[in-house]
Specification:
Blueprint (H helix, E strand, L loop, with lengths): L4 H15 L12 E5 L5 E6 L8 H9 L7 E6 L11 H7 L4 E6 L9 H7 L3 E4 L3 H7 L1 H9 L3 E9 L17 H12 L3 E5 H7 L21 E5 L18 E6 L12 E5 L1 E2 L2 E2 L1 H10 L4 E6 L1 H9 L5 E7 L25 E8 L2 E7 L18
Parallel strand pairs: 3-4, 4-5, 6-13, 6-14, 7-8, 7-13, 8-9, 9-10
Antiparallel strand pairs: 1-2, 1-3, 11-12, 14-16, 15-16
Helix pairs in contact: 3-4
């Protein structure tokens, strides 16, 4: 496909606009849109700011007004063809007299998808796939949720250059510097749920909250991701900070666990047991049913190893400090690897210096639909 320079510039702008709402749109995708007039000049732009708010195409068309007539609409996700709290974007595009629509990624949603076909039936020229890889990365959480019918999981950890998450005596605060720790809060603010194992709760008494991050003006309250403790035997102490009122908390326990000490302190869900603990696929199903799109897995090494062994980690974000310990617990526990041929192979997506530390982001294989069977993700207009 020959790339038109003005359309490529518009798509890059649309991707940047979409990124402004990262962490704000769940359970919806992030979407950016630019409208070009017939001469190829920018006539309007917009992005989907939050679930229930106007879609990106509607915002951009509203700004473009009459200049959209005969022009080109460039958008990061195939326009929806679904009547919800607002009308379908396809109808707004057709009514505006747009001549051409260029989108990056097809909408896999079983209800909202199909917009390209609707536009083509209305005589609009439709092009797909422009900067699709970049758009896939920007919408990885929602695409995973929609295609695989489970939340997207990012495992985050901090370690020394020799892979230690703590010293031999157990001390771990702080391996990384203040800039990296602030970056972790930015990461938390973009997710729907923060998951930790009970071992981490007992050892560190973490709060697992978002602190020091300013949200968009339209959000009246700070971001409060759901805190999830994977606690097979219900050992979470009633006085733990993870049970304070700074954010909602869900304790996942085994079906036969005694939860008397947790009554009135947090929501509890009972799940079947899996290999060495809880059934993690069942946990993700529970979170999916609670409209969780993105999960940040924060600890500890045993739980992270179990998620990896189960094939349930989509992205890894590692904060590496220029420090060597030589002894102490490793950042990752047993992960189902017995020989090098069984290693979990990832692709480096980004390496960024954060203060004195490095942030390395790696991703697994591309997310594709496992079967043509439709999934039941909800998308709000």
């Amino acid at each position: 496909m020959t790339v038109h320079p003005a359309r490529e510039r518009a798509m890059r702008r649309a991707l940047a606009l979409a990124a402004r709402a990262q962490g704000e749109t769940s359970p919806n995708p992030v979407v950016g849109c630019v409208v070009l007039d017939p001469a190829g000049d920018v006539a309007g732009e917009g992005y989907h700011p939050y679930a229930g708010g106007p879609h990106a195409e509607v915002v951009a068309l509203r700004e473009a007004a009459g200049r959209a007539q005969g022009g080109t609409l460039v958008v990061t996700l195939e326009p929806c063809d679904h009547q919800g709290r607002t009308g379908p974007c396809t109808r707004a595009i057709i009514d505006a007299g747009v001549r051409r629509v260029v989108y990056a990624v097809a909408d896999p949603h079983p209800v909202a998808g199909g917009g390209a076909r609707r536009l083509a039936e209305a005589g609009i020229e439709v092009e797909a796939g422009l900067l699709a890889d970049e758009a896939e990365r920007g919408n990885a959480e929602w695409l995973t949720r929609t295609r695989l019918n489970r939340p997207h999981v990012t495992w985050k950890f901090a370690a020394t250059l020799d892979g230690r998450s703590a010293a031999a005596d157990g001390t771990s605060q702080w391996i990384t510097g203040p800039e990296a720790r602030h970056d972790v809060h930015e990461l938390r603010a973009r997710c729907d749920a923060i998951v930790a194992g009970v071992g981490t709760v007992l050892a560190d008494d973490p709060r697992l909250t978002v602190r020091g991050v300013r949200r968009h003006d339209h959000r009246r309250t700070p971001r409060r991701p759901l805190r999830v403790v994977v606690d097979t035997s219900a050992r979470t102490p009633p006085t733990g900070r993870v049970l304070d009122d700074e954010a909602p908390t869900l304790i996942a326990v085994a079906e036969d666990a005694d939860t008397t000490a947790l009554e009135g302190r947090a929501a509890v869900v009972r799940l079947p047991r899996g290999d060495g603990g809880l059934d993690l696929a069942a946990l993700l199903t529970e979170l999916r049913d609670r409209q969780i799109v993105s999960v940040l897995l924060e600890g500890g090494p045993t739980l992270a190893g179990s998620f990896l062994a189960a094939g349930l980690v989509d992205r890894v974000v590692a904060y590496l400090a220029p420090t060597l310990l030589g002894a102490g617990p490793a950042a990752l526990g047993a992960a189902g690897v017995g020989t090098l041929a069984e290693a979990h192979r990832l692709h480096i997506d980004d390496v960024t210096r954060i203060g004195a530390d490095l942030r390395v982001t790696a991703v697994g294989r591309a997310v594709v639909p496992p079967s043509p069977e439709p999934v039941a993700a909800r998308r709000e207009n």
